[in-house]
């Protein structure tokens, strides 16, 4: 049984963010039932002839610009109810389903897909609804979670012993699949949540390690639902297999900046090849003559290959396009709406997946026999290829033949390995909203993805070697990180010391450290150019912490715990007697706005004034303009069909990164005014360069 239907497309507009509010951006979006209207205005194209409003028709339009006005705000529940209508039933009828979020960085994809603890998004809501749905058959659910970054697939739920990069293959019955991707048997929402949290944490860890952001990768979260129906009378049984894909795509503007929208494809110069090809596939499928899948080149990128069934194939698909309401995002919003409108023309032919697994097993068994036979007579040149094919088929067969009990056992074993792996990196796998026992000693990685609800915690043991080398306990990489960067030790009494490697850049509360030093609760540790940690060791508090900017290096470590003053910029919430429960904002938001008088008095002459800082930031604005110009030149080169050399490709990516980071810093200045200046002043005073500030500005967001 099959059903033809168009990709269902919804658009959701988010509230103005701080930067847009601070800039007093005007709203260029309005919605009227299933119409989204985009207004062009003078700010968008100064000096140009004003275009009239552009209307786009979608299946659903969600107005979510002001959550303080609940009557006019499409919340998470409404989005779920509208998009979810019929979808849970479809899954249980045996259809594949795919929901993907598309839009520029910061437009609300992750908020809509994952949501927050208080406002869960589509993924948690669909998962609970799927698990709660009653079925006449025996239902089993498996989960996989992967990310695609720069055309490489990584399993977010299997770390140790696995190849970091996985390959995509295609089977004539099962369609495209990722070889060796771990499948986890789950029965409750709690099982799923644990895997989700662990997967998100791995995503953040990898991103932080690579000095990237998780928003540059695509995340594909898949539930495979199997229902077995036994017919008591005939003694036969039938199986329905369906896949539920939830896809959080990388920010779309990268594609357009690098010449997407079907205009230009340049292999080496593409910042995000996958999105470029996704745009191409959508455009192709939207054209009547191309609707047959055979005309569409899905295999040109990993993302489109894996989404083959979801786009123009065997799936019921929903696309959620997320947009900003602000005029200064006009270009990106326009391009998102054009894409979304195009996607609406894609026609899918979803088929009930009945006994798919049995059929696949039967063909695979046949294939294995055939390949073995061919191998017997193959010449050496051919045999290598045949062996590879045989291995692929045998692996897939093995996976399909696993019993449910074996799968459960594997999931348990895998969870243990994953836990050990994360712990070996010093990372807690506790769920978000972490409650830490008050005595625990750990480092909090301030470079964690600011948009994620999760934290990277590095639990300290007696000896903790930190650096880029393979023998280190906490492996970091990036500019300024030495093979053996430093060692942090903890005595049985809970005293914590940092022993730097003389030539490595290590700072404690802004001071360069070249000898062993004792660390105290809430000390801030900077390693290399990018890493910032804060120490949680409530048992060992520095007596006069905030004024300790010029702390002497201590060789005599014994210190009594004394009255504690909280660190001015990173306060952990909760009383001292409570467990430390901290929320991201509690330590990401600067709490104290004025620079402490005592910290200024010691060297007032040499401190730059706020005006000086603003002037320096103006300078950094100028360098952003210069960066933007460079970026534009490179993009133009791409557009004019010139191939970029390797150096230029790297420059393109780096420049884009710098622009983004610099913009974040400037938006903070305009959004938080003097408060942010005070913070930057404090950090500049402690010797951080403007460039380092720009690089680390993410943790102020
Ligand atoms: N509908 C909404 N209601 C309230 N806040 C929202 C909404 N959509 C997004 N936001 C807020 O906007 C910010 C950016 O959203 P989000 O991180 O989801 O963007 P994104 O498109 O996933 O970005 P990226 O591509 O960088 O991952 C977040 O702080 C989020 O909480």
Automatic annotation (TrEMBL):
Domain CARD: 624-686
UniProt-listed InterPro entries: CARD, DEATH-like_dom_sf, FHA_dom, Kinesin_assoc, Kinesin_motor_CS, Kinesin_motor_dom, Kinesin_motor_dom_sf, P-loop_NTPase
Subcellular location: Cytoplasm, Cytoskeleton
GO MF: ATP binding; ATP hydrolysis activity; microtubule binding; microtubule motor activity
GO biological process per UniProt: intracellular protein transport; microtubule-based movement; regulation of apoptotic process
Keyword Repeat tagged: no
Residues holding ATP: 103-110
Keyword Cytoplasm tagged: yes
Keywords: ATP-binding, Coiled coil, Cytoplasm, Cytoskeleton, Microtubule, Motor protein, Nucleotide-binding
Pfam families for the chain: CARD (PF00619), FHA (PF00498), Kinesin (PF00225), Kinesin_assoc (PF16183)
GO cellular component term of the entry, any: microtubule
Biased composition annotated in UniProt, kind: Basic and acidic residues: 547-567
Location of the Kinesin motor domain: 6-346
Main location: cytoplasm
Chain intervals for the UniProt region annotation (Disordered): 536-583
Coiled-coil annotated residue ranges, if any: 361-403, 610-644
Family assignment from sequence similarity: Belongs to the TRAFAC class myosin-kinesin ATPase superfamily. Kinesin family.
Protein name: Kinesin-like protein
Top-level taxonomy: Eukaryota, Metazoa, Chordata, Craniata, Vertebrata
């Amino acid at each position: 049984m099959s059903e033809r239907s168009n990709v269902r497309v919804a658009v959701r507009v988010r509230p103005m963010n701080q930067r847009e509010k601070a800039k007093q951006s005007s709203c260029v979006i309005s919605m009227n039932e299933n119409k989204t209207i985009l207004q062009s205005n003078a700010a968008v194209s100064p000096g140009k002839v004003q275009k009239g409003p552009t209307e786009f028709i979608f299946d659903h339009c969600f107005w979510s610009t002001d959550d303080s006005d609940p009557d006019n705000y499409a919340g998470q529940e409404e989005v779920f109810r509208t998009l979810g209508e019929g979808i849970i039933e479809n899954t249980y009828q045996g259809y594949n389903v795919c929901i993907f979020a598309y839009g520029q960085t910061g437009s609300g994809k992750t908020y809509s897909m994952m949501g927050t603890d208080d406002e869960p998004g589509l993924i948690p809501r669909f998962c609970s609804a799927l698990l709660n749905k009653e079925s006449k058959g025996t239902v089993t659910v498996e989960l996989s979670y992967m990310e695609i970054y720069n055309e490489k697939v990584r399993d977010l739920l299997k770390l140790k012993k696995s190849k970091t990069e996985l390959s995509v293959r295609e089977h004539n019955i099962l369609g495209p699949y990722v070889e060796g991707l771990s499948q986890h048997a789950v029965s409750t929402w709690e099982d799923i949540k644990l895997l989700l949290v662990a997967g998100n944490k791995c995503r953040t860890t990898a991103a932080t390690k690579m000095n990237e952001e998780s928003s540059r990768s695509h995340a594909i979260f898949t539930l495979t639902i199997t229902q077995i129906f036994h017919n008591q009378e005939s003694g036969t049984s039938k199986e329905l297999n369906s896949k539920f894909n939830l896809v959080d795509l990388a920010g779309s503007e990268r594609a357009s900046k690098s010449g997407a929208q079907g205009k230009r494809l340049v292999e080496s110069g593409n910042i995000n090849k996958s999105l470029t090809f996704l745009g191409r596939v959508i455009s192709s499928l939207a054209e009547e003559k191309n609707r047959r899948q055979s005309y569409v080149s899905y295999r040109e990128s990993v993302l489109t290959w894996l989404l083959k069934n979801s786009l123009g194939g065997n799936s019921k698909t929903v696309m959620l396009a997320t947009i900003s309401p602000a005029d200064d995002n006009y270009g990106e919003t326009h391009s998102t709406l054009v894409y979304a409108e195009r996607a609406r023309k894609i026609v899918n032919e979803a088929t009930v997946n009945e006994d798919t697994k049995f059929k696949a097993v039967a063909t695979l068994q046949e294939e294995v026999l055939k390949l073995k036979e061919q191998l017997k007579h193959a010449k050496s040149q051919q045999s290598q290829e045949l062996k590879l094919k045989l291995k692929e088929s045998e692996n897939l067969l093995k996976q399909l033949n696993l019993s449910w009990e074996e799968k459960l056992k594997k999931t348990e074993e895998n969870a243990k390995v994953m836990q050990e792996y994360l712990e070996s990196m010093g990372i807690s796998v506790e769920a978000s909203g972490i409650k830490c026992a008050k005595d625990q000693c750990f480092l909090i990685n301030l470079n964690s993805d600011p948009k994620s609800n999760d934290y990277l915690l590095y639990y300290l043991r007696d000896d903790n070697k930190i650096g880029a080398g393979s023998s280190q306990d906490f492996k970091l990489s990036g500019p300024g990180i030495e093979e053996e960067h430093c060692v942090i030790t903890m005595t049985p009494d809970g005293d914590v010391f940092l022993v730097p490697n003389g030539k490595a850049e290590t700072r404690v509360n802004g001071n360069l450290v070249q000898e062993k030093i004792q660390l105290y609760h809430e000390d801030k540790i900077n390693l290399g150019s990018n890493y910032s940690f804060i120490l949680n060791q409530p048992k060992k508090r520095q007596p006069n912490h905030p004024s300790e900017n010029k702390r002497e290096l201590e060789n005599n470590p014994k210190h009594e715990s004394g009255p504690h003053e909280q660190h001015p910029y990173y306060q952990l919430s909760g009383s001292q007697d409570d467990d430390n429960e901290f929320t991201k904002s509690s330590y990401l938001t600067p709490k104290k706005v004025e620079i402490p008088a005592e910290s200024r008095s010691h060297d007032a002459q040499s401190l730059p004034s706020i005006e000086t800082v603003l002037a320096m930031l103006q300078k950094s604005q100028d360098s952003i303009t210069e960066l933007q110009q460079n970026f534009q030149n490179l993009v133009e080169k791409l557009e004019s069909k010139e191939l970029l050399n390797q150096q230029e490709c790297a420059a393109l990516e780096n420049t884009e990164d710098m622009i983004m980071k610099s913009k974040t810093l400037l938006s903070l200045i305009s959004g938080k005014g003097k408060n942010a200046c005070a913070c930057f002043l404090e950090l500049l005073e402690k010797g951080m360069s403007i460039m380092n500030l720009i690089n680390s500005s993410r943790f102020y967001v």
